[in-house]
Amino acid sequence: MAEDKKFKPYISPKDFIPEFSLRAVIMGALFGIIFGAASVYLGLKVGLTVSASIPIAVLAISVFKKLGNASILESNIVQTIGSAGESVAAGVVFTVPALLFLSGGADYFHYFQIFVLALCGGILGVLFMVPLRRSLIVKEHGNLPYPEGTACADVLIAGEKGGKLAQKVYYGLGIAFLYKLLMSILGLWKDTPQYIFDKKSVLPNAGLSAEITPELLGVGYIIGPKIAGVMVAGGVLSSLVLIPLITMLGNGLTSVFPPETKQLISQMSSDDVWDHYVRYIGAGAVTFGGLITLIKTLPTIVSAFRDSFKDLRKKDADASKEKLRTERDLPLLYVLIGSVILIAFMALIPQIPGNLLTSIMIVVFGFFFVTVSSRIVGLIGSSSNPISGMTIATLLATSLIFVGIGWTGDHYQPIALVVGSIVCIASANAGATSQDLKTGYILGATPIKQQIGLIIGVLASTIAIGFTLTLLNDKIGIVTVTDLHKHPLPAPQAVLMSTIIKGLLSHNLPWGLVLVGMGISAVMELCDVSSLAFAVGAYLPLSSTTPIFVGGLVKWLADRKNKSAEAESDTGPGALFSSGLIAGGAITGILVSILIGTNITGPDGKPSNVTWADKISIHVGGVPFTDYLANIMGAYADLLALGFFTLLAFILYKFATGKQEKLL
Fold it and tell me: In this predicted structure, what is the pLDDT of residue 298?
């Protein structure tokens, strides 16, 4: 589609108002650090993140009103810089923790290595998007809505005209902090009510559980009832169908059943069955779901590449004329030089496993999936961007190339992951970059200033992301492959990536179980159900998807009460309150993790066996209060915990059905 000549941005290209100010850059960097750290925690916990642009835009408006009037383009720079934190964090936590599970990979899991991977991937995502901006943002303005970018522009325009949108985010943040303080730090009620069926019951080893945290409730509300319902359906399949079915069929076996080589199925707990069998079924389901999502987008991929290269080859007839402020991008020469320097740095630095071949793979796969990512988020938004599928496809292609040239030793496992990590981070950040550039296009921002701001945002958030990831690992340890369902930070996406790499390079993947998982995803696609959302739900613990489903249910009820499923959107009170729940719950979760992993100093000046979490939490007779309640209340302790979570869901419902601010 040709560029719409009638389109007029909110701020005229001929008007010059404050935009790239020092206060905007500093505030954007601070928000990037905060939301980047929160996204690390959320990504490790449930394997997904949500867009941070809108809550950051709302907070920027609020803070600027306290500091004095600011221009709408300054607020836009704040959200542009700040949003980089969430997107880079998503790419990092989906892949980099897999180093801990690969042979020799733990040697590379240090702050400097994480910082370099995040920085290179994040900046490549920005640079690769520069030549695509005119093709995807400008020329396709009437075809690609970029929902978060458009909604963010609406929020900023509403803030320019006045309103109280930011209150909802602050309320959510404060309530999440109080709720999690009482539950996870003081220990007034259980954080994961559950019921596991006995091995001799009609559903042996089946289990029902829910991790009743505010951040998961908020995630469910934002992604909506359809996706949340599909995700919990996958969890139900794993916990209430596959695990009991395998247990029933295996109880009569007198020998071990592959791929397990030591333990009989009759001796396995519910978590053991998941680890030895269901994990590979889930991995196959996610792999197929990711690949089928990419295949379905092939027409848009071809179109995007054709238009992008046509635009790059085209000579600008007006090159001799000075470009308008709203048409100025980073010079293509700077993009090429910057990309070459980053790739050469990755290939030569000894602390990062890689070589010339992997650098070429990063360029090819990176630019390909950056284009794919931008096009997809233009249609369905950043929160639904199948980054996992793109990363899986990259890892499959990389591993198969390695196998073809004989690179099958354990030494090559971290090298394959480095390729996948940088492509994943670049693709994730490119999607967020596209939304930001769309917001800027609607508002009349200066593209080159946004692009420089995004690079600053990557740098600032990367510092915090590496620190947060290593801090959480040092204090409580990130999951090992064998305790995904027992660990507070299961890192499900990273476990999946390591499973794929190890299985392919070692020729030791249990293909039977993997193909069963692929078949399940194929059935979902034939039923016109999102196979990727279903597969991710099957791979996650049911305890994670249940509260997400409750959040989606609240969204459904609120839409019915408001009598319009479209009325609330990404900028309504429920969505903004949920963003506060996510930020407050995740940040408090980081604090809890630090308290759990930090021992207090004893009288002898040495760290004791008592942690700060033990010191702060309430005890009765030397027993944690949650255990005390369980001893005297039995199953009613679980009901008490569910009662508090129901109260939190009701508060969300009341906010969602309250008076909505009119944006325009």
Answer: 65
Cα 486 to Cα 62, 192, 541: the distances in Å are 40, 11, 9
Give the model's confidence band at 115: pLDDT under 50 very low, under 70 low, under 90 confident, else very high. very high
Q: What is the DSSP letter of 570?
A: G
Upstream peptide bond of 259 is cis (omega within 30 degrees of 0)? yes
Q: For residue 14, count CB atoms less than 10 angstroms from its CB and return exposed for 0-12, middle for 13-18, buried for 19 or more.
A: exposed
Cα–Cα dist 218/212, whole Å? 11
E strands within 489-606?
Answer: 599-601
- What is the three-class DSSP state of 267? helix
The whole-angstrom separation of Cα 73 and Cα 75 is 5
**Contact in structure between 90 and 43 (CB atoms under 8 Å):** yes
56, 83 Cβ separation under 8 angstroms: yes
CB 19 within 8 A of CB 450: no
- CB-based contact 573:655 (threshold 8 Å): yes
**pTM (predicted TM-score):** 0.73
- Tens of pLDDT, residues 510-562: 888 889 999 999 999 999 888 878 887 887 778 888 998 999 999 999 988 87
pLDDT 10s digits, 149-188: 877 787 787 777 665 666 787 888 889 999 988 988 888 8
Give, rounded to a whole angstrom, the gap between the first and last alpha carbons of the chain. Answer: 27
Give the C-alpha distances (Å, rounded to integers) separating 379 from 26, 267, 382, 383, 576.
Answer: 32, 49, 9, 11, 22
Strand runs labelled E in 376-467: none
In whole angstroms, give the CA distance from residue 11 to residue 129: 23
What the block records as the tokens of 643 is 């009662």
Query: What's the rounded Cα separation, in Å, for the pair 323 and 318?
Result: 8
Q: Which residues are registered as beta bridge partners of 624?
A: 619
Instruction: Please say whether the beta carbons of 216 and 46 come within 8 A.
Output: yes
